[in-house]
Amino acid sequence: MRKIEAKRGLDIECKGWEQEAVLRMLYNNLDPEVAERPEDLVVYGGIGKAARNWEAFEAIEDTLRSLEADETMLVQSGKPVAVFKTHE
């Protein structure tokens, strides 16, 4: 388990601000000040999870960091399953 904190500031981890925004929203949902049970990835309602498990969470993070501006990540059942070429 990791402690996730909402990111702030102008430094980004991703290749663009759109990808960074998704990553920051994910982190914000798991910030201990916001999440219901962040250690279990539960963000709301007792069962609503940000990812299937910690391995899937890290895969989502990695995919967001490498995602290009003309790509879209598909998340299904709490894990990333595909990246598609789209339009900027």
Automatic annotation (TrEMBL):
Q: What class of enzyme is it?
A: lyase
A Pfam family that the UniProt record links to this protein: Urocanase_N
Per UniProt, residues of the Urocanase N-terminal domain are 4-88
Keyword terms, alphabetized = Lyase
Cite the Gene3D superfamilies for this sequence: Urocanase superfamily
Q: Name one GO molecular function term.
A: urocanate hydratase activity
Q: Which GO terms describe its biological process?
A: L-histidine catabolic process
Q: What is this protein called?
A: Urocanate hydratase
What's the Enzyme Commission number for this chain?
4.2.1.49
Q: Which domain of life is it from?
A: Bacteria
